[in-house]
Amino acid sequence: MSILRNACIPILFLAGCGARSGLDASGGATAAGGLASTGGASAAGGVASTGSNQATGCTGSFETLQSSTGLCVAKMTAITAPNGYPNYAIDVTEVTKGQYDAWLATHPAFPPKADANCGYVTTYRGESSDLTYRGPDAEHHPVVWVDWCGAYSYCKGVGKRLCGAISGGSNAYTEYADASASQWHRACSSAGTYTYPYGNTYNSTYCDGYDYRIGNGSLTGQTITVASLGSCVTSTNGYAGVYDLSGNVREWEDSCISTGQLAACRLRGGAFWDQGPLTCGREDSDQRSSAAIYIGFRCCSQ
Hints:
Helices cover 10% and strands 12% of the residues. It is largely without helices or strands.
């Protein structure tokens, strides 16, 4: 696995550190896991992490024990699809470290070597121990250091899918900002109504980006507990209750320019250290095999 490293990856933000790295390029019924609350309350967070890689249990307010697998997964909420397509569902939070670690503990099989996209995979974790957050409530921070194939395999492994095209399968690389095509973008923009998950007017205090941290005097370059910012949530009927679509971590989308380990795949929403307004239509991408402290993902329904 290729692990993305950048000379501008600090533990603390430094003046002049760019917000982006990698490649900047300038899509049924609700899935198992239940519907999440549409309110704006902060997550309870659950128990504190011991610093190990083992999941501590299904203790967060926005996660649920999945009957089909016995795994703790993110709750989902229904999204109204365009006319002619069935509604789908999306995770209300990014997949957490605890949820991902519980799946890893089942020893999931790697893709076959002949797989055109993920045949290179020999591990589903590209974690760097010197940068991964291991403080209080680490199990409820978004999982990071996961490449596209790890994200795709996790979602499939828990009976969901990496968010792609509303019509099914992968979303076209050029249609990342099309609310009639992209599952992720439709949820974030409330069917193209809003520029940000919360509306059309940028507010630097709402979501976990660089501007939010500067405004709060918190320069630590790190993720936060999922759904812990009650303002960073969608609220329009039919699209409500989805947290952190802007900031915290960039999220892989099933939307790649071609096959293969080095193909560019879309990353959505921006991360905790990305500067400027983090819009639903922000266009980031990186190689399929890249992994980093600021890259995570969430799942949609099949």
